[in-house]
């Protein structure tokens, strides 16, 4: 009897363990990403990825947390080697210098007669700080770094200078451009290269802190363009004119664009669609496909306004931190935020946005670099992979399957690499001793984001029209021999991004299972792919991101 009871118990335990084993198996689903490669639906700049440097002093605090440290344009350690290498890795990176306090900055040029006083905390002042100052020796130091790092600089000018703030919150009067003009002349005199001058920060529509009417802003933008044309008369290329650097308001932007059609090069808007950084539901928003889809309305509306206007200006996202008031620690500077960030890059591109500036490169709780250590946060590596893999031409992309997959495709980024080869004796004798061979990266790159927490998705790729697809040209094996370890043209490159230990709040990112971190010299690590046969599905693990470069299929839009 005892042995029977023992056997019954053993059977019960085996049943329980088998149930646990089956139920704990990772779920697997499938889907198809459809790509229309006949023509591009948008085109981004080569240096689409952009980031900001801000003015906030250490005393800037939100919800009892002071997250800015020494990350301001005025106190950032410009000699930090990680900072230099992190900028250089993009070759080039656009850096937008500006933010909330830019309209309260005085430039201490030789023409300025005011004392150069730093920002001071004062609750009665707009934005909680007094007027600040940019010393010219600091401007010199900044430009030394930018030149060394190869950055392309967009500088936000003090658009409130000379205006008066009314009781209704509006700023009235024309912009007094004398201080800005003095800075521009100083900059040209020093032979510093500025990619663009941007007028103001968040003064459009209802504004933040205060606002300026669209017709007056247009007049001020025309004045800025005239000043730049005069000062840069003998210099080419001239900096571009950028405005308004504020939140999208359809009526305001429409009027502004119509009145600056011959003066404006770039129209910029800001995005903080996740709400305040103190929100405890940020992660739920980030992994909700419906919530992410909501921002498409802004991109679509601005795109339509630009197309219907007589302007030649193009659209940029001039600042985007997702959650305002400095973000949220271990969310907007952690792995989970790459879901939002990369989805934003993909969505913006599909509406012909040319450049996307992330708030911030360093500073607050949403920096690409850690404010204290300068160590890259996960979004830095996401941005760098985008920059290296996603080319100019944007392809129309849709996904059939779970709604938890976000899919975007671009023609591959054109880059040249060198591969050692050995020529046959016949070729050698007829031509020359060639030991390096240049290959232009071709095909297309697919970005896949899996917002599901438990299901791996096996993704197949299909084209809406396959009649005109071209296979990449293959070289005759008689003439060249690929080096050992070089992958077949039928292979695709895959870059799988996951969080350390599967923790979405982790600030450590894994690429193909390996931790990404700088070395003791502050060098950015290599971003090396895995290889898979292009005919096999792409496996996208739960809560992961995959870039897949497929070189052997070249859609018409990518030729």
Automatic annotation (TrEMBL):
Transmembrane segments: none
InterPro entries membership: GH (IPR017853), Glyco_hydro_79 (IPR005199)
Assigned keywords, A-Z: Glycoprotein, Hydrolase, Lysosome, Membrane, Secreted, Signal
GO CC terms: extracellular region; lysosomal membrane; plant-type cell wall
Stored Pfam families: Glyco_hydro_79n
UniProt membrane topology term: Peripheral membrane protein
Residues spanning the signal sequence: 1-18
Molecular-function GO term, any one: beta-glucuronidase activity
Subcellular location: Lysosome membrane; Secreted
Family: Belongs to the glycosyl hydrolase 79 family.
Function: Endoglycosidase which is a cell surface and extracellular matrix-degrading enzyme. Cleaves heparan sulfate proteoglycans (HSPGs) into heparan sulfate side chains and core proteoglycans.
Name assigned to this protein: Heparanase-like protein 3
Lineage: Eukaryota, Viridiplantae, Streptophyta, Embryophyta, Tracheophyta
């Amino acid at each position: 009897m005892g042995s029977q009871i023992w056997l019954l118990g053993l059977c019960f335990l085996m049943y329980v363990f088998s149930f646990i084993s089956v139920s704990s198996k990772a779920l697997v689903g499938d889907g198809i990403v459809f790509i229309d490669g006949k023509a591009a639906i948008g085109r981004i700049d080569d240096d689409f990825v952009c980031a900001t440097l801000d003015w906030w002093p250490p005393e800037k605090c939100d919800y009892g947390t002071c997250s800015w440290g020494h990350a301001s344009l005025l106190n950032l350690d410009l000699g930090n080697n990680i900072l230099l290498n992190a900028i250089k890795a993009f070759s080039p990176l656009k850096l937008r210098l500006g933010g909330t306090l830019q309209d309260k900055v005085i430039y201490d040029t030789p023409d300025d007669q005011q004392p150069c006083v730093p920002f001071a905390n004062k609750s009665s002042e707009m934005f909680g700080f007094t007027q600040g100052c940019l010393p010219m020796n600091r401007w010199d130091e900044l430009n030394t770094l930018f030149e060394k790092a190869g950055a392309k600089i967009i500088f936000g000018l003090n658009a409130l200078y000379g205006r008066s703030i009314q009781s209704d919150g509006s700023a009235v009067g024309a912009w007094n451009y004398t201080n800005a003009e003095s800075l521009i002349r100083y900059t040209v005199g020093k032979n510093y290269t500025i990619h663009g001058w941007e007028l103001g920060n968040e003064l459009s529509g209802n504004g933040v802190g205060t606002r300026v009417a669209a017709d007056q802003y247009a007049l001020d933008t025309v004045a800025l363009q005239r000043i730049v044309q005069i000062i840069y008369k003998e210099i080419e290329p001239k900096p571009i004119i950028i405005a308004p650097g504020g939140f999208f308001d359809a009526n305001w932007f429409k009027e502004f664009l119509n009145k600056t059609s011959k003066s404006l090069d770039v129209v910029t808007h800001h995005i903080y669609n996740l709400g305040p950084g103190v929100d405890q539901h940020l992660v739920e928003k980030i992994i909700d496909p419906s919530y992410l889809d909501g921002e498409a309305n802004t991109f679509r509306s601005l795109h339509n306004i630009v197309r219907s206007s007589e302007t030649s200006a193009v659209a940029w996202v001039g600042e985007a931190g997702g959650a305002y008031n400095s973000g949220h620690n271990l969310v907007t500077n952690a792995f989970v935020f790459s879901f939002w960030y990369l989805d934003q890059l993909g969505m913006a591109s599909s509406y012909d946005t040319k450049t996307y500036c992330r708030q911030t490169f360093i500073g607050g709780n949403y920096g690409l670099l850690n404010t204290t250590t300068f160590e890259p946060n996960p979004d830095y590596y996401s941005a760098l992979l985008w920059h290296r893999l996603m080319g100019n031409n944007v392809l129309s992309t849709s996904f059939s399957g779970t709604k938890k997959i976000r899919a975007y495709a671009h023609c591959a980024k054109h880059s040249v690499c060198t591969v050692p080869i050995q020529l046959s004796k016949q070729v050698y004798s007829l031509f020359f001793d060639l030991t390096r061979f240049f290959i232009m990266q071709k095909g297309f790159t697919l970005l896949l984001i899996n917002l599901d927490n438990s299901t791996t998705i096996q993704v197949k790729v299909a084209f809406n029209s396959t009649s005109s697809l071209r296979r990449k040209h293959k070289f005759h094996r008689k003439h060249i021999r690929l080096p050992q370890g070089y992958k077949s043209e039928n292979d695709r490159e895959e870059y799988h991004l996951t969080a350390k230990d599967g923790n979405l709040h982790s600030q450590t990112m894994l690429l193909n299972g390996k931790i990404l971190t700088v070395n003791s010299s502050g060098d950015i690590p290599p971003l090396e792919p895995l290889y898979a046969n292009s005919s096999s599905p792409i496996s996208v693990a739960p809560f992961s991101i995959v870039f897949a470069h497929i070189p052997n299929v070249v859609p018409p839009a990518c030729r």
